[in-house]
Amino acid sequence: MYARLYRMPAVERKHIDLTPLKKAGVPIFFIVGGPGSGKGTQCERIVAKYGLSHLSSGDLLRDEVKSGSPRGAQLTKIMEAGELVPLEVVLDLIKEAMLKEVARGSKGFLIDGYPREPTICIPVQIQEAKAVIFFEVSEDILVKRLLHRAETSGRADDNMETIKKRLKTFTTATAPVVDYYEKKNKLVRVIITLLHEVFFFRNFL
After folding, report:
1. Closest of 12, 26, 30 to residue 205, by C-alpha
2. What PANTHER family does the record tag this protein with (predicted)?
3. Helix 160-183 and helix 139-153, axial crossing angle in degrees, nearest 10
4. Which of 29, 73, 102, 126 stands 20 to 30 A from 110 (CA)?
């Protein structure tokens, strides 16, 4: 793939004081799971049971774009060009959200959709993740769930071909992260074999 011939816009960066977050020392969990794995539903249940804060990198990016801020406008240009938002910018958004939640008394974090690379992540700048929860679902179940979801989504691109591409992209992108944390004995595989699986933390908090 050839590099694009135009310069991508620089994204505004801010100095973020992480002192309150480091002092709080609350646990951090990364959540990994493919599209249709049900990780959003499971995160809601964990939040309700344990009082943790669920942060989704995708939601944070969308909220920043909707805010109309200069940074949001810069992010819009990057995404419209089909480029990935720089990891350090995603991390800035996560840090800011974590600081807000700690100020509200958060007991810990479930971080969904980050890191995309094992060596550029929160533990380097804040603290080591307590665990990485990997919702492992067979491709057959994921495809069934996504096709079922497509029946009500109204999206023309929710078809077998695009679903398989999304699953392949997810596997390629997350395999290094899963391998990295498995070698550090911090990976928890939750193997989901039913269409409606219930999972709660038991031994982490």
Report:
1. 26
2. NUCLEOTIDE KINASE
3. 130
4. 73
Digit-coded pLDDT (tens) for 138-147: 888 888 888 8
Q: Provide the whole-model pTM.
A: 0.76
End-to-end CA distance of the chain: 45
**C-alpha dihedral sign at 187, 93, 14, 82:** positive
CA distance 16 to 45: 30
Q: What is the pLDDT of residues 4-57, one digit of tens each?
A: 444 555 777 778 898 999 899 999 998 888 888 888 888 888 888 888 999 998
Residue 201, both tokens:
């933390």
Which of 121, 132, 126, 116 is closest to 186 using CA atoms?
132
Superfamily of domain 19-192, CATH level 4: P-loop containing nucleotide triphosphate hydrolases (3.40.50.300)
pLDDT at 167: 85
Domain boundaries, the chain: 19-192
3-state SS, residue 89: helix
